[in-house]
Amino acid sequence: MFVRAVLAGLVVLALVACGSGAPAGPSVTPVPGAPYIAADKLAFQPTQLTVPAATAFDLTFENKESLPHNVAITTQDHAGQELFKGDLITGPKTVIYKVPALSPGTYFFHCDVHHEMKGTITSQ
After folding, report:
1. The sheet that has 48-51: what strands, in order across it?
2. Residue 54 in contact with residue 103, Cβ under 8 Å?
3. Could you give the angle at the alpha carbon of 70 between the alpha carbons of 67 and 74, nearest 5°?
4. How confident is the model at residue 1 (pLDDT cuts 50, 70, 90)?
5. Residue 109 backbone phi and psi in degrees, to 5
6. Which residue, 38, 51, 69, 85, is most buried by CB atoms nearer than 10 A?
7. Strand 72-76 and strand 105-110: pairing?
8. How far apart, in Å, are the Cα atoms of 107 and each of 41, 78, 120?
9. Could you say which DSSP state residue 34 is in?
10. Alpha carbon of 115 to those of 12, 13, 37, 106, 112: distances in Å?
11. How far apart are CA 84 and CA 13, in angstroms?
12. Predicted confidence (pLDDT) per residue in 31-59, tens digit
């Protein structure tokens, strides 16, 4: 009888620890017209963005998965100077990244955790 009670307690504890699958913390409402990137099925959508040159901008990032993802912007594909690095977000959750102004040109974005997730940003 004692063993059954302990096992039942462990099952309850495990279910509580796993959570309900709800997002960790509140998501934000996307900024209308702001650049948007979603992480889903270990891929970014879209993989190409156009942003205004020489102007800081809000980037709406939606992580649709329970895996941690972020958006990092660099001057070369997975290399070069890092221009922006967003916090890792465990989803499902939506955040707004505040990205500093980018000079006109082409840049690259990727997830620091999953290197196959990448895309390009054109600043014009």
Report:
1. 48-51, 118-123, 105-110, 72-76, 79-85
2. yes
3. 145
4. low
5. -125, 150
6. 69
7. antiparallel
8. 23, 10, 6
9. S
10. 37, 35, 16, 19, 6
11. 40
12. 678 899 999 999 999 999 999 999 999 99
| Burial classification of residue 73, based on how many CB atoms lie within 10 Å of its CB (0-12 exposed, 13-18 middle, 19 or more buried) | buried
User: Going by C-beta distance under 8 Å and a sequence separation of 6 or more, which residues neighbour residue 78?
Assistant: 108, 110, 115, 118
CA 118 – CA 104 distance, rounded (Å): 20
Please indicate whether residue 28 or residue 98 has the higher confidence score (pLDDT): 98
Enter the tokens of residue 102: 């980018």
In degrees and rounded to multiples of 5, residue 112 shows phi and psi of -65, -25
With tokens 């999953």, the residue in question is: 114
**pTM attached to this predicted model:** 0.76
Tokens matching residue 117: 């997730």
- Is the predicted pLDDT of residue 11 greater than 50, yes or no? no
Distance CA 62, CA 90 (A): 10
Q: Which two tokens stand for residue 75?
A: 């001057």
